[in-house]
């Protein structure tokens, strides 16, 4: 792939009151983000509550997206399950349907695992994928998984699977780690998950982001992810978001932007943000982004 | 169910070099434990590396056990997945085939979740199970999941789902929690996962255990789980085991007891214990359990 990865929106998953996925709202939101210049949409990442979307549901969502005319090569699919068999089944299904990349998290039930164990787990998934294995972006998000992916593990994976492991999404929020990753593996697709480090990482060779904030600020995040432009407003607003569980907070902002309250619902074990929290988020957003436009 | 739960062995999952599950070794081990007085076998718990066994594999293992003549009502099935849809699919399959209980862990990808979110997650699983929902033992193992189940959450679950939520496996290793659980919900099946607290818990009304140590010391753990007998040797040996990741350590002991090296293998992300570690475990075991028999 010679084109830069650019900005992929970590698409939120819309759910109805009864818990069903609201496909139409998701497709509308995906189109809006693509129209605003996102290079792709990422389904079932952390912001997309991927861990809460079952195997059958995932297939229904992907089918609906393709049927709605969203191009397969603009769809990244997150795989956040522990069993190598299930990870390969989910990834294989998406790759067969043409997804451009798989965002593959390490297994996270067991803690304190070794690089050797993680290497073998990824190897097992790739073996099960067989000839379907391609375009894997490994996913480092230790604040959630508690399972960090070391720079040396990534070196071992890329040298053993050079045609398969093409990138890393780094949501560590740990700048020294990000910097060492860019230094050691900057020829891979390095994506910076923490928007506060995004522009700086892109200037050091990062290829962009899979970003939750792109759900409601796609143009602004794009300028960071494509051109490495600093944006203090985004940095400040991410600080506000982090006062809340991130996924419901992102959904509050989508609901506000679209006027569609379907976005306020989350899947358990997450819960929606209180009315007071919604107001505080909105006020912080307006102070940063509306005041200057007025 | 009027009979006491008693002792269920948290059966280890035997895997061949290529990663396939060694069904015959597992069935032999299950029979050995049942013959030694275990009331049931628990498949796919934490010791059984349940998080590493895929949906299709689980069905093959359960089918093989039933075909081998192990009674369905002597089989407990662990379900350790995040998506309510997948949890209901796995639990429903086992319940339809007659499993006596489901050991159901909370979703563990997201951390810092609320009781409200967990209550809704369990509710979603039970709703998806529909009329199949029965005999659920909820699984508290916060050292692994990082998602504790509070005593009040268990109260809410049992009062809302009195015909479904029948017990708690408490692997917190936190005696004050165990004591408060027995005080508040001692009429449920309370199972004590930490063998060092087992006898004491049983004397306070606990109904037994799902125990990894029962893989190689079934008679000794049974005396604790059925009669509340203290056994300082078990307490000391659990202390030794906890110097290592527990699942590979249990497998070292099964390999030694059976002479079958298939038990030394683990699934990634776990890795086997070093030769030196194996020797230390064996020496500790012999010092505690063989010396007195000599």
Automatic annotation (TrEMBL), chains A, B:
Gene3D superfamilies for this protein: Aldolase class I
CDD domains in the cross-refs: DHDPS-like
Spans traversing the lipid bilayer: none
Keyword Cell cycle part of the UniProt annotation: no
Cross-referenced InterPro entries: Aldolase_TIM (IPR013785), DapA-like (IPR002220)
Keywords: Lyase
Domain of life, source organism: Bacteria
Residue sites binding pyruvate per the record: 47, 210
Residues annotated as the enzyme's active site: 139 (proton donor/acceptor), 169 (schiff-base intermediate with substrate)
UniProt key word Lyase: yes
GO molecular function: 4-hydroxy-tetrahydrodipicolinate synthase activity
Family: Belongs to the DapA family.
Protein name, per record: Dihydrodipicolinate synthase family protein
The organism of origin for this protein: Rhizobium tubonense
